[in-house]
Amino acid sequence: MRLVGAAWRNTGTFSILDSRDTMAPFVRKELATFLLLVVLCVIVTALNPRFVSPANLQNTARLIGAFGIFSLGLGFVIITGGIDLSVGSAFALLGVLLSIMLTTWRLPWPVAVVLVLALGALLGALNGLLITRLGLQPFIVTLCGLLLYRGLARFIANDQTKGFGDATGFQTLQRMATGSVLGVPTPFVALAVASVVMWVVLHKSVYGRHLFAVGRNAVAARYSGIQTDRTILIAYVILGGLTGLSAIFFAFYTNSVSPSSHGNFFELYGIAAAVLGGCSLRGGEGSVVGILLGTTLLQVLQNLVNLLGIPSSLNFAVMGGVILIGVVGDQVLRRRAVRTAI
Amino acid sequence: MRFKLAVSLACLVALAAGCGGRQQATSGATTHRLAFITNNAADFWTIARKGVEKADAELANVTVDFRLGDGTAAEQKRIVDDLLAKGVDGIAISPVDPANQTAMLNDAVQKAIVVTHDSDAPDSKRECYVGTDNVAAGRRAGELLKTALPQGGTIALFVGKLDARNAQERLQGIKDAIAGTKITILDVRTDDTDQVRAKANVSEMLVAHPDVAALVGLWSYNGPAILNAVKDAHRIGQVKIVAFDEDDETLTGVKSGAIIGTVVQQPFEFGYQAITLLAKALAGDRSGIPASQQLFIPTMVIRADNVDDFRAKLLQLRGR
Prior knowledge:
The complex is a heterodimer of chains A (342) and B (320).
Chain A: H1 2-10, H2 19-47, H3 54-79, H4 87-104, H5 109-132, H6 138-156, E1 162-163, H7 171-178, E2 180-181, E3 184-185, H8 186-204, H9 206-216, H10 218-223, H11 228-254, E4 256-257, H12 266-276, H13 288-307, H14 315-341
Antiparallel strand pairs in A: 1-4, 2-3
Helix pairs in contact in A: 1-2, 2-13, 2-14, 3-8, 3-11, 3-12, 3-13, 4-5, 4-6, 4-11, 5-6, 5-11, 8-9, 9-11, 12-13, 13-14
Chain B: H1 2-28, E1 32-37, H2 44-58, E2 62-67, H3 73-86, E3 90-93, H4 98-111, E4 113-117, E5 128-131, H5 134-148, E6 153-159, H6 165-178, E7 183-190, H7 195-208, E8 214-217, H8 222-232, E9 240-244, H9 248-256, E10 261-264, H10 267-282, E11 294-296, E12 300-302, H11 307-318
Parallel strand pairs in B: 1-2, 1-3, 3-4, 4-5, 5-11, 6-7, 6-8, 8-9, 9-10
Antiparallel strand pairs in B: 10-12
């Protein structure tokens, strides 16, 4: 009763700036994903206890880290009501450039890292500017990005796989990107740090409030004095920077970048993670915890296909099936709650 | 009205002249337009390209169009349609999905001479297949496994897609070679050419089955993926690795001993022989085509003792 009443009371005004009332639906979506994750982990551990072995936890944590970093950024963009399909191709382009910077130009690795992050942010800014200044639809702009960056990556690399070999000159970087900190894989540590920062930005800062406002009702937000263009642009730049960071981790994970196939369709993992975690594709909803849960769920699903010996051909079928069950269950429970509330 | 009529007539005349002119050019000259189409954009094809360019340079009256596929049958159909529309005389193609591309290949045969390379489409009307006998290649990999695991053991295989004919044939060859030994196949994991997934599959296999004795990578990027995963798990030397093709990292792994050996094809010869065959067939000389319509290019097994020589030759071929 309280939930529905609160929603009715608050619609039409700028209640989106008061996240307290709008928190409850998020909590339920996150809760559903969290429960699904817990249930899945329990079942898999029962079927194959090696699921919780240190080696497997480390492997999975490494992938959760790499995928989670850019999923956070993608979640921000989705909260604005936009989307970014060019992330996967950006991985290819940034990976190729990283390889060239380190192995051909022999730049010092800190310089190369900063350049890749800056370039990622620049690509994000490009997307953001086209979307805000020219009013183009995010889908189209980033679709073009998907095609453009892939083509550029292939052209720059001359369609050859770009590798890092034995990393002469940047072994520190390779060790950092592929290693662990006190047993915790570096990408996961990076994700933890990024999550804390993004949580503060999204849930505790003025910018975060503005982000939700713009996503919920851009016109109302603008009329209430929020600079919607800048808010959206910053979201895309954040995604770009995080994409750059993830690109470095992915490039070193495989130790080579095949420009035609590296990162292919990875943006779908990010979008799925964000949506599973409570981000509505219509914008205005989402949470950092939810995105983390979504990413973890996706990686656990892929992990269990291998651990339980499920045929590789069913990899995506399992993911789709379990996600569908979760989403349907969540919707059924929500409808029941609304009905009993009335 | 009269202006529109005049413009339309002018266009028609230009079109007719253009068509007529083109016909003149192709019937008068003896330049044959050939095309070499790959199935994807892997490094493997950069070597094949050198072979194609060498054949192109040696043969007079031949121009070759080198086209990279993107791993899908749809893109190959688009490329073939484009080339046929441009009036190509001969096509050498590595079909992504031979079983379902038979119709497309047969259509192409109506307008040009078609040979397949790297991956055969034996049910189609193609003139010849130039490439590896993948079953034999698989058998050579199986022999490597037998020397690596004299006491037997379980093995796992990793490949991009199992519905690719070369993957199935290599698997068959390995099964043939290890039949009767104590080596058993645990599983074949696929990764759909996602190299992150490829490495993750190996890492997770090592967790799920820590006692796996050997890992085999059937496609060119699977070798490095396996090597990296085994390295991360600190099990180099404990788990034996057999690979295919000559990726840089694979060769480095062979040199260091982490990889027992790799079965390499000769993509240079694919390019060279395919184009030469096409040119000769267009000139009426089909003597180079064996009765079986399959021209097998032998594979080589690269182990620690011959990897340096092979690398040197590769550098020469790649022109790097």
